[in-house]
Design brief:
Elements (H helix, E strand, L loop, with lengths): L1 H15 L8 H17 L6 E6 L10 E6 L10 E7 L5 E8 L2 H7 L1 H22 L20 H7 L2 E6 L6 H21 L3 E3 L3 H17 L3 E9 L2 E10 L4 E8 L3 E7 L7 E4 L2 E2 L2 E2 L9 E5 L5 E5 L9 H7 L5 E5 L2 E10 L5 H17 L22 H7 L6 H13 L2 E6 L5 H11 L3 E6 L8 H4 L1 E3 L4 E3 L2 H11 L5 E6 L6 H14 L3 E2 L11 E2 L5 E8 L9 H4 L3 E5 L4 H6 L11 H4 L13 H8 L10 H17 L7 H17 L9 H13 L4 E3 H14 L24 H17 L1 E3 L3
Parallel strand pairs: 6-16, 7-11, 18-25, 18-26, 19-22, 22-25
Antiparallel strand pairs: 1-2, 2-3, 3-4, 4-5, 6-14, 7-8, 8-9, 9-10, 10-12, 10-13, 14-15, 15-17, 16-17, 20-21, 23-24, 27-28
Length: 756
């Protein structure tokens, strides 16, 4: 009986995990008994393969029993299928129409696989809703209460539709069987619809599709000019159709006896000028020509799709495309064989222009690197490929060595707020870390050197020139505009030597807009290219770098309160030369850490929500983390207040958000024994940066702050202590070291600041 099988697993699995795996009756029930009972219920059991799993050699945290249609798949690694997914805490089970993730992970890596699963889930739902009326009691998302399972997040992303059954309220056997048959009916409908696309060979169909394809971009054009477009081996002449909204142009013509030629570029064309082709999406005149990059394909319902074979031409091989393309491949019936191609979009999809635009921009990044309008130099060509390793491993492989904690703090800070300040001596890798992370993400970025004469936001965002009657754009504005068009891709604005001028003079409007999400007024004139106001998109990440010397300015509290300030220390020459950092690995959930756009809601998470998430978490010794954090934050606030550097709700909220994402990164443990490492980072990044003043103002404050970094009272001033790294009584090592350093400077120079 199905109900008995479910009850047996839910009631006994957690206990069984403490017993021997081999021959365990619960493992046998999942692998044998449960599938046998399903076969008795299913009308045509022979067309399915039914398999259950309790793990391979060891217990899994996410047991399952799946039903595979042999026409689609015979394993949980690929395809789609109904599956019973048990929650990790065994409080219930989902009957989920789900997808295989293993093949996707192996091909694209975890981060991209998760994105693909989410996208395909939505597409499957859209397809089902076009075939049947799906009842409202089906769930579009599931929560497996993940704590330990590395696979559960992919099951959650792969869910198409699901029913949930709680252990405390299991329905009747009849209801369970009825639900299963309803899900199997949905499965059969999708399997029947899942026929591969077929490449169109008919000459008139191709000609008609080409006509519609070109008309889409002609209708979107804001500007039409004539000129020439260059490519390896020759050039084409014709009209260039430019779209301000899309940021691309199309030049198209029919090449007799050869193909329909469609060249695309990303720079606004000028009359009678030469232009650079970024990508061609060409179509054969008739039949199948696999040497031509593009083709049209149709499905069983007659829908026509634009596909690309990954052929870029010139010095860029198909192998280069396959290595760097970050989207999904689809198998199509390509004449007498099957081929893997990229499906750009459906010809009648209203979003096809944007999908083509995104494809063109991706090709641009592949060929020219991530930086807008500028090629990657030869020395950086190794960063052009899509990395498969973690970001930290990517850094090491690229020859850059950073303290792993610095890397973790940087990535965690970007998740909390899209504004981070990196400070330290020149040459310590501040700009390079931000640049490499943008390249690792295959994201657009721009390094903008701040000038000493920057006194207003026009230097950053441009201005309307009343003489030329045009808006004078900046590279920063171009990047922000691009980010607004591509909301799913992070864009990095790197402000180099940010404090070479007074930051609040040119950056105040920007900061306020990031905080309030209100638009920044730009101009009140008619300009087709630049809007009258600018809203900072959530996928724009701002990294400011700060060099420490006598030419720079202090940051105001307005700036420091709104950022995490991360200090880069000078690495010992020996560590750098011997690559000592290379032996370290980041040990937490790196997929979560490295995705700055996941969990975006944390940026606005309220205190009550944070408390609800963390109030049951304990620390070593049994105390509740939330209570300990309340005491610690309050203690530092009181001491800093004695010198006029106390902080308000904004800083408190951002400290707690940082602690929350760090807790998630470390797996969300019930007892978190590593919390001090991250609170230490917040003392140094959020509390200490505002410190500056004379010996009279700061001497006693530094002493009290230093004592808060210890587990017990301390007597002499921080400057008299020896090597703190070997002192077991230090709670917050990096903060204590910084305070000790500041105390020494204060004693010798009678004045000190965190940055200078």
């Amino acid at each position: 009986m199905l109900k008995e099988d479910i009850e047996q697993v839910l009631n006994n699995y957690k206990r069984a995990m403490n017993e021997n795996f081999t021959g365990n009756p619960i493992a046998t029930a999942l692998r044998t008994n449960f599938p046998k009972d399903l076969k008795k219920i299913i009308d045509e059991p022979n067309k399915y393969k039914i398999t259950g799993s309790a793990g391979q050699g060891n217990w899994t945290y996410s047991p399952w029993v799946a039903i595979f249609d042999k026409r689609i798949t015979t394993s949980a690694q690929s395809g789609f299928y109904p599956v019973y997914l048990f929650k990790e805490d065994m409080s219930g089970v989902y009957l989920s129409l789900n997808q295989g993730a293993t093949d996707l992970k192996n091909k694209y890596g975890n981060r991209r696989a998760n994105e693909i699963l989410n996208t395909k889930s939505k597409n499957f739902r859209d397809k089902l809703n076009g075939l049947i009326q799906v009842s409202d009691n089906f769930l579009e998302s599931i929560d497996l209460e993940v704590e330990n399972s590395p696979n559960a997040p992919f099951y959650e992303a792969g869910n198409i539709y699901a029913k949930y059954y709680s252990l405390n309220n299991l329905p009747s056997e009849e209801k369970l069987e009825s639900d299963l048959k309803e899900v199997l009916n949905m499965y059969d409908l999708l399997v029947s619809e899942d026929e591969p696309l077929k490449i169109i060979e008919n000459e008139s169909e191709i000609a008609e599709s080409q006509k519609k394809f070109v008309e889409i971009f002609k209708n979107a054009a804001d500007k039409i000019v004539s000129g020439k477009a260059g490519f390896q081996g020759g050039q084409e002449e014709g009209n260039f159709y430019w779209s301000n909204k899309l940021g691309i142009w199309l030049c198209s013509r029919k090449i007799e006896t050869s193909r329909y030629w469609n060249g695309f570029g990303v720079e606004e064309p000028e009359e009678d000028s030469g232009h650079t082709i970024i990508c061609e999406i060409n179509f054969p005149l008739t039949g199948i020509r696999r040497s031509v990059a593009g083709a049209f394909a149709n499905d069983e319902s007659g829908n026509i799709y634009v596909i690309h074979r990954g052929k870029l031409g010139g010095n860029f091989s198909k192998a280069f495309f396959e290595k760097n393309y970050e989207g999904e491949w689809t198998s199509v019936q390509d004449g007498d064989k099957k081929s893997d191609v990229v499906v750009i979009g459906r010809l009648d999809d209203p979003m096809l222009p944007e999908k083509v635009r995104d494809f063109i921009l991706m090709i641009d990044r592949m060929k020219n690197g991530s930086k807008i309008g500028e090629n990657i130099s030869n020395e950086d060509n190794g960063s052009e490929k899509l990395p498969s390793a973690s970001f930290y491993e990517f850094l090491v492989e690229s020859g850059y060595f950073f303290d792993p904690k610095i890397v973790e703090n940087f990535l965690l800070s970007l998740k909390v707020k899209p504004f981070v300040i990196l400070t330290g001596n020149s040459g310590t890798g501040k700009t390079k870390l931000a640049q490499l992370f943008a390249r690792y993400q295959l994201s657009n970025y721009n390094i903008v050197p701040v000038g000493a004469n920057w006194t207003e936001n026009r230097h950053l965002l441009g201005f309307y020139n009343i003489i030329t009657k045009n808006y004078q754009e900046t590279t920063a504005l171009t990047l922000i505009t691009e980010a607004s068009k591509n909301s799913q891709i992070p864009h990095f604005l790197i402000l180099d030597e940010m404090n070479l001028s007074h930051v609040e003079r040119y950056f105040a409007d920007f900061l306020s807009s990031m905080e309030s999400q209100e638009a920044i007024p730009l101009h009140s004139n008619e300009d087709n290219n630049v809007p009258n106001e600018l809203k900072i998109p959530g996928n724009l990440l701002v990294v400011g770098t700060v060099n420490v010397d006598e030419t720079t300015y202090m940051f105001s509290p307005k700036v420091l309160d709104r950022a995490n300030t991360i200090e880069f220390s000078t690495s010992p020459a020996k560590s750098y030369m011997l690559n000592d950092y290379g032996k370290y690995q980041l040990t937490g959930n790196t997929e979560y850490l490295e995705d700055p756009l996941s969990n975006l809601e944390i940026r606005d998470c309220k205190l009550s929500q944070l408390k609800e998430e963390l109030e049951d978490v304990k620390i070593e010794g049994g105390d509740y983390l939330w209570d300990v954090l309340a005491d610690e934050v309050n203690n530092f606030q009181e001491v800093l207040g004695k010198a006029g550097f106390d902080f308000g709700f904004r800083v408190i909220d951002e400290i707690l958000r940082f602690m929350y994402v760090a807790w998630i990164y470390e797996g969300g443990p019930e007892i978190w024994d590593n919390w001090m490492r991250y609170f230490d980072a917040q003392i140094k990044q959020k509390m200490l940066p505002k410190l500056h003043g004379s010996q009279r103002v700061l001497e006693n404050v530094l002493m009290e702050l230093f004592e808060l970094c210890y587990t017990e009272a301390v007597e002499p001033s921080p400057r008299y202590f020896g090597d703190l790294k070997s002192d077991k009584n230090v709670k917050y090592l990096s903060s204590a070291l910084k305070i000790q350093e500041m105390d020494k400077v204060l004693y010798e120079q009678r004045y000190v600041s965190f940055i200078n």
